[in-house]
């Protein structure tokens, strides 16, 4: 009997799951309550995969043998409640992809902040070492798509808590947990402990032959590890103290001590600047060493890496003012990291869809570094209420061009205009990439 596989949601992960399901002989049907992008519709048609959009055929969905759910679909929807009541097994796309890539080595990276940067840096290390590696997950192509179309020996997978919520057997050889700060709490009944549990699911199937790489300086991670047992081999990283094994700092040098071959790089030689990137660089370097990549290759990679588009990306200097695109900063913590790494006065463009943000964490940095906040969003009231006392200038704008023009007016030679929104982009833009691209276009028009 052919297994009936229903894919809910036809974004990149849903399409990847559909292609892999079809390739592996499942009877696949894709259902999306919204509209499906034309490019994805064409792919489904070419591969003879039936689909529906703008609706969900409940009887078809509830008749599935298994459902792959898009990470974006919350459990509290009526459809998910019905699926759970019927007891149809639900998995995430990374679970499906794992099922058909168990022979490969898997390095999975999660955390509230820094996932994309660390994933890209880890991939850069594996690529520099000449290994057949693929960078997948929340960054670029979906894991399932790559397993179906261009299998690799190593998968460097960026995973979110939403994806981890629906894993069953997914077991990375190396699990990296960078940090845990409040984010997406609306999906976890506003309980931090639920969100923490969700992040730690990355380790749930690991054994002693696997590695768990984590930030020892993160309070939430530290608290959890005091109460729970992790069965994999733990490798911590920290900037607070020297360690026998793991990542640590001594005299401004990053030390990665794994497998008796220390990798030592001056922090000033690292390609990525800022305190948070010391952590990201250590995590990526440790991942490389667990897979026996030579220390010379790791050192070379950590010093030659080019950062990601829309993540602290230098755009241009106009009349002595630097413009930085950090559109990928969709939560307060990402903005905190961006401000923390700034050395010169900042004109900050921020705002968008507020996920119940608590701005108190950035107030000190705003007082110290930000000379003006340009609010960019349909509802800027939460930012104005939270931060108007901490900066001398607060301007309301409704389009990227207006925001960039206002920022430029308030900036002087030697200042930085930083787009680091701390919010989702869906009020005025398609996504954070669209927001970043519009920022770059507006800067080029100055």
TrEMBL record:
The keyword Cytoplasm applies. InterPro entries: Mur-like_cat_sf (IPR036565), Mur_ligase_C (IPR004101), Mur_ligase_C_dom_sf (IPR036615), Mur_ligase_cen (IPR013221), MurD (IPR005762). One of its GO terms (molecular function) is UDP-N-acetylmuramoylalanine-D-glutamate ligase activity. It comes from the Bacteria. It catalyses: UDP-N-acetyl-alpha-D-muramoyl-L-alanine + D-glutamate + ATP = UDP-N-acetyl-alpha-D-muramoyl-L-alanyl-D-glutamate + ADP + phosphate + H(+). Its EC number is 6.3.2.9. Keywords: ATP-binding, Cell cycle, Cell division, Cell shape, Cell wall biogenesis/degradation, Cytoplasm, Ligase, Nucleotide-binding, Peptidoglycan synthesis. ATP binds at residues 111-117. It is an enzyme of class 6 (ligase). It is found in: Cytoplasm. Pathway: Cell wall biogenesis; peptidoglycan biosynthesis. Residues 310-423 form the Mur ligase C-terminal domain. Its main location: cytoplasm. SUPFAM superfamilies: MurCD N-terminal domain, MurD-like peptide ligases, catalytic domain, MurD-like peptide ligases, peptide-binding domain. GO terms for cellular component: cytoplasm. One of its GO terms (biological process) is cell wall organization. Residues 109-287 form the Mur ligase central domain. The keyword Cytoplasm applies. NCBIfam families: murD. Cell wall formation. Catalyzes the addition of glutamate to the nucleotide precursor UDP-N-acetylmuramoyl-L-alanine (UMA). HAMAP family: MurD. Belongs to the MurCDEF family. PANTHER family: UDP-N-ACETYLMURAMOYLALANINE--D-GLUTAMATE LIGASE. This is UDP-N-acetylmuramoylalanine--D-glutamate ligase. It comes from Chitinophaga silvisoli.
């Amino acid at each position: 009997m052919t297994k009936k596989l229903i894919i809910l949601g036809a974004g990149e992960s849903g399409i990847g799951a559909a292609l892999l399901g079809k390739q592996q002989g499942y009877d696949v049907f894709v259902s999306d309550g919204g509209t499906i992008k034309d490019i994805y519709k064409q792919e489904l048609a070419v591969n003879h995969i039936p689909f529906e959009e703008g609706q969900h055929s409940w009887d078809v969905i509830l008749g599935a043998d298994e459902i792959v759910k898009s990470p974006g679909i919350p459990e509290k929807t009526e459809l998910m409640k019905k699926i759970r009541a019927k007891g149809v097994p639900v998995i995430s796309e990374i679970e499906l992809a794992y099922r058909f890539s168990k022979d490969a080595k898997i390095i999975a990276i999660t955390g509230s902040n820094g996932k994309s940067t660390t994933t890209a840096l880890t991939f850069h290390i594996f690529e520099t070492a000449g290994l057949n590696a693929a960078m997948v997950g929340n960054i670029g192509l979906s894991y399932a798509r790559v397993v179906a179309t261009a299998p690799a020996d190593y998968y460097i997978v960026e995973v979110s808590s939403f994806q981890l919520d629906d894993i069953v057997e997914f077991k990375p050889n190396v699990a990296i947990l960078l940090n845990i700060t409040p984010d997406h709490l609306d999906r976890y009944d506003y309980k931090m402990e639920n969100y923490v549990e969700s992040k730690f699911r990355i380790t749930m199937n690991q054994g002693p032959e696997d590695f768990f790489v984590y930030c020892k300086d993160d309070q939430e991670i530290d608290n959890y590890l005091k109460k729970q047992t992790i069965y994999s081999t733990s490798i911590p990283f920290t900037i607070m103290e020297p360690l026998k094994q793991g990542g640590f700092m001594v005299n401004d040098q990053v030390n990665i001590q794994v497998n008796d071959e220390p990798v030592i790089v001056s922090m000033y030689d690292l390609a990525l600047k800022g305190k948070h990137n010391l952590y990201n660089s250590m995590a990526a370097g440790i991942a490389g060493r667990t897979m026996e990549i030579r220390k010379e290759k790791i050192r070379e990679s950590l010093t030659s890496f080019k950062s990601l588009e829309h993540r602290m990306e230098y755009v241009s200097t106009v009349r002595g003012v630097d413009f930085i695109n950090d559109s990928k900063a969709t939560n307060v913590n990402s903005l905190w990291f961006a401000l923390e790494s700034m050395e010169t006065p900042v004109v900050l463009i921020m705002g968008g869809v507020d996920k119940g943000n608590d701005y108190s964490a950035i107030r000190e940095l705003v007082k110290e570094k930000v000379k003006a906040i340009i609010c960019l969003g349909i509802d800027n009231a939460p930012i104005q209420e939270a931060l108007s006392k901490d900066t001398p200038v607060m301007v309301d704008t409704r389009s990227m061009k207006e925001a960039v023009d206002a920022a430029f007016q308030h900036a002087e030679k030697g200042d930085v205009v930083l787009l680091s929104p701390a919010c989702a982009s869906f009020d005025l833009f398609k996504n954070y990439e669209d927001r970043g691209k519009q920022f770059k276009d507006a800067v080029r028009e100055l």
